[in-house]
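Notes taken during the Thursday session

The instructor put the following on the board and asked us to keep it in front of us for the whole hour. The protein is Amine oxidase domain-containing protein. We were told not to look anything up and to reason only from what is written here. First, the residues (454 in total):
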Amino acid sequence: MEPQKRVAVVGSGLAGLATAHLLHNDRRHRFAVRVFESGTSLSLDAASISIANPELKTEDRVDLPMRAFAGGFYNNLKALYDHLKVPYHSQPFLFEFAEAPKAPATKETSYFVHASNLHQLAPRPSTVGTIQYLVEVLYLIVCYGWFSLCCFFIAPHAGETLRQFLGRTWTPRRFVTYYLLPLISGVTTCPHEKLMNFPASDLIEYKRRTHRAPHFTVSEGVKSVQDLLIKDIDYELNAVVKLVEPQEEGVNVWWEQAGSGMCMERFDIVILAVAPDVVGHIFKPLEHHMARMPTAIVESVVHTDRSVLTETRPVRQALKAHSAQHIYLRTSADSETKTESHHVQSCGAIVTTCPYSPLDPALVIHSARFTRVLRSPESQRIVNAIFTEGEQSHADDKSVPQWKNGEGNVWLAGGWCWDGMVLLEGCVVSAMRIARDLDVEVPWLQKMRNQFEL
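Then, after some discussion, the predicted C-alpha cells were revealed:
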C-alpha cells in the first residue's frame, strides 16, 4: 500500500471543510488531511450564536451571516446536505421594503411587502393608501416583468457590469434603487455601489436559476454541517499560516501558533480555502493579482432593539398565518444609496446586516465582522484565467495570472473560486473540482446525475 499523501487545508469555512471531507473519505484512503484555522474555532460556524427561544423553550442557533439557500441555484450545496443527512426545511420569508427618513423629525415609510415562497399578494402596509398601493403593484408588475424578460432573453456582453446592463436594457431606476438592489444586497451582504460593479452575468444567472424556486434553511444551523464535515479530521486552531512555498518535492507551509512560535512542515498537497487577500499574502505567485480582487468588511449585529422595525398589524398577521420570517429592508437614498437588512428570528432576536441606523448598545447581544469577496469584470477575468482548463489561454494577457489551479500542488477553494455569485454554492463547486483533479469520488454527484436523468 502506498504511503498517504499529506494534505494541508488552510481555512475552515465551507470550502475548506468540504474539500477536507472529500479527501479524508477517499475510498482508497490516499490522503492524510489536516486543517489549519487561524481563529479560536472552526470558521464556518464561528460567528453564529445560540439564543433561548422562550415560546418553544429551546435554544435557536442563529447563523451569521444568514445561510438560507434557494433551489435551482444551490443544487450542489443541497446535494451535499442530502448526502450528510443534514435536516433542512422550506422557509417562507416576508420581505418588507421601507425608505429611511430623510430628516430626523420624519418617520420612515414602509412602501411594499413581498411574500417570498407564498406566491401570493402580501398584505398592504397600513402606511400606504389603497389606491396608491394598487398603483405600486401595477408598477412592480410591469418593472419586474420587464427585468425578468431581459434576464432570460438579453445576453450580457463580455465584461459588462450590472450598471451597464441595467442601463442598456432601460430598467427603471426607481425599481433598481428601491426593489432590485435591496433584495440582492440582502443576499450578497454587499453595498449598492459595489453591487452595481459586479459582472452582469452574475445576477442574470442567479435570477434565471432561482426564478420561483423555494428557499430553505438548515434546521439546526450550520454547526450541524460543520460537525459532520470535520468528523475524524485533524485540525489546528489558532494556527496562522504565514507562507506557502512550492518545492520540487512537496510544499512547505510556515505557520505560527500562539505560544509555540514559527513552525515549518512539508506537505504533498496544500489547499488554500481562504479569501483572496489572504491568498495573496501567503502565496507569492498570486500576490499581485489577489490584490486586485475587491473585498469589503461586512458587519452583522444580533440584538433585540425593535425600534428598527415598523411593525404593522397586517404584517404581523401574515407572518403568523404563514409561519414566515420577517426580513425588513430599509433603504437610504441620501448621498449614498444603501440598504440595511433586519432579519427577525423565531426566538425574537433581530440580525441586522450592514447597519447604519443607531442601535441601543444595551440591547446588542452579539456582533461579528467578516470579509465579503466582491466581484468586478477584472476579478472575473482573474478567476477565469486561474481555473480555465487546458492550455494557457491568456499567455499574452499580463493583466491575468499565468498560474493555474493545482500548479505546484497548490489548489484554491472558496465561494469566489468560480464564475458566479460569491455564495455557498461556489464553495461546494470548488471542493468538487479539487476532488476531481485528485481522482476522488464525489459521493453525491452520481445521485444528482440519476435525479436529472429521471
